[in-house]
Amino acid sequence: MTDKVVTGRKVFFIFAAAFGVVIGVNIMLAVQAVSTFPGLVTKNSYVASQSFDRDRAAQISLGWTAHAVVENGVLSLSITDRTGQPVQPASLKATLGRATHVGEDQIPAFEFDGKAHTANVDLGPGNWNLRLLATGPEGTAFRQLLALYVGRKS
Fold first, then answer.
1. Average predicted confidence (pLDDT) for the chain
2. CA 133, CA 86: separation in Å to the nearest integer?
3. What is the DSSP string of 31-72?
4. Above 60 in pLDDT, residue 22?
5. Could you tell me if 94 and 132 are in contact, meaning their C-beta atoms sit under 8 angstroms apart?
6. Cα 81 from Cα 94, distance rounded (Å)
7. pLDDT tens by residue, 106-142
């Protein structure tokens, strides 16, 4: 039976390898986080802030409420007025994507059926955001971010 001696050099290499793995994983995760999340909501927040209150008041004056749901591959977006009646905006643009990256972003091709705007979508399970921009009859912008959850397909 031989006794193996643990020398200071062996201990150093063990600790260096362990810290090397931890630091390597942290660097990899940081690079992935920065490269997959755009992080940009507005190009110039100061300029955007100058009209925020005015734009918000105009949007509130429309009295619109938006609600979205995904069922069986169909995205249904309902926009209603104060009385609960369906609204068909002068224009409607939307981007459907993940909150954390733009790789799966898609632009739904909405069709208005008299009650709601519907579009066929192919979404994987998880959290999704619908970034909505609609225009009222006098050109008032209606912006909304709607969170959606898609369950696993059974």
1. 89
2. 16
3. HHHHHH----S-S-HHHHHHTHHHHHHHHHHHT-EEEEEEET
4. yes
5. yes
6. 19
7. 999 999 998 999 999 988 888 999 999 999 888 899 9
Is residue 73 within 8 Å of residue 120, measured between CB atoms? yes
> How does DSSP classify residue 90?
S
Q: Structure tokens of 106?
A: 């898609």
* Banded pLDDT at 1 (limits 50, 70, 90): low
Q: Can you list the positions of beta strands (E) in 10-154?
A: 65-71, 74-80, 91-97, 111-112, 117-120, 126-135, 141-150
Question: How do the domains of the chain map onto residue ranges?
Answer: 1-36, 51-150
Selected from 2.70.98.10, 2.60.40.10, 1.10.8.60, 2.130.10.120, the CATH number assigned to the domain covering 51-150 reads 2.60.40.10
The model's pTM? 0.68
